[in-house]
Design goal:
Blueprint: H1 2-10, E1 16-19, H2 33-36, E2 39-42, H3 45-54, E3 62-64, H4 81-87, E4 95-100, H5 109-122, E5 126-131, H6 137-146, E6 153-157, H7 162-168, E7 171-174, H8 186-192, E8 197-199
Parallel strand pairs: 1-2, 2-3, 4-5, 4-7, 5-6, 7-8
């Protein structure tokens, strides 16, 4: 933001800034780069309101455009559930639980793994899918091995079409913590796919 903002001002270009995280921005007067922006676009009203209140942004210079899922892509009718379950090696007796997202700390896939161990102990027919890639991949895989859950927790890696996995699932989860999620994309996507969702209060 600083590099782009200063370059825009020096080049006399418009400086448009986006903000999609909801943790607070330092309100110090020395952190004036956001005030320089010709316009700011956020992904939620909470972020917009916080920046007006805490970072001295004029209301007319900041807009909220909530992220919305593609309702044409995320439709149960687009997928053959039986085929998708076969693709992910799921039998008719399995209950499939999944999570989709970048593998990074704020998404708390480690909580998903803890939950997988506890749920599987009570319900051996459950299987768990972690879709995505990211900086925490190795750490999370080690945690699965450490907890001896390799047979029930599957890492799919990055999926170009996460709706295919969602078509195979029975339950979707969102385990993010803190106020880092502004407008999660995967929860409304899962709901459009007809999945019940268990989510943290973010």
């Amino acid at each position: 933001t600083w590099l782009g903002g200063v370059a825009a001002k020096l080049g006399r270009a418009k400086f448009i800034r986006t903000r999609h995280l909801s943790h607070p921005i330092n309100s110090s007067r020395l952190n004036f780069i956001n005030e320089w922006a010709d316009h700011i676009i956020t992904t939620g009203d909470t972020v917009r309101n916080n920046m007006i209140q805490d970072n001295r942004i004029l209301p007319e210079r900041i807009s909220s455009i909530p992220t919305m899922p593609d309702h044409k892509k995320f439709r149960q009718g687009n997928y053959n559930r039986a085929q998708e379950r076969e693709r992910f090696d799921l039998g008719s007796n399995h209950v499939a639980v999944g999570i989709v997202g970048v593998l990074r700390r704020l998404k708390r896939q480690d909580l998903f793994i803890e939950m997988a161990g506890a749920v599987h102990a009570a319900h051996p027919e459950t299987r768990f899918f972690i879709a995505g890639d990211g900086p925490q991949a190795d750490t999370l895989k080690k945690l699965v091995t450490q907890k001896k859950l390799n047979n029930i927790v599957v890492f799919t890696g990055h999926l170009e079409d996460p709706a295919g996995l969602m078509a195979a699932l029975d339950i979707y989860t969102q385990t993010s913590s803190g106020n880092m999620e502004t407008t999660t994309q995967t929860v409304p996507q899962a709901l459009l796919m007809g999945l019940p969702v268990v989510a943290t209060d973010v």
